[in-house]
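Input sequence (135 aa), recorded before submission:
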Amino acid sequence: MHATSSVVLNGIEVLAGAPDEIHLRAPNILESIGGMKKDIMGAKAMSLDMEEMLISLSVSAAASPAAHVAMGKLKKLACCRVHLSHIPSPGDEAGLRRLGVHLTSEASFSSNDLSPWRIAPLRSARRQRKSYWKH
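Predicted structure, token format:
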């Protein structure tokens, strides 16, 4: 799971008063998403970005009352601030923006893998970030 996903998930767990022993996201759903990313989409890692984590939470909320309550706490994260020590992935940045979380980050990449397929989305994310702060 990406750092931003962990921050948001831990935040809503605390706000919902859910004990650490309760899993807000069903393990079988996580395995399914991870398997699809790795086996079908060719991802190197099964780490979930913010948007993927929110989707897994919403699917889990259909069967888990604790996940449903925690999902209701997402709106309370609006106007919170998060700082990353690396440039966020497009999915992390988009997910935080949709939640109304204010994001700042260092100008370093989270990986040394700067192959062309990774650079284009990052350039797009920078453009989106600039337009986000103008509003």
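Checked by second reader. The chain has a mean pLDDT of 80.
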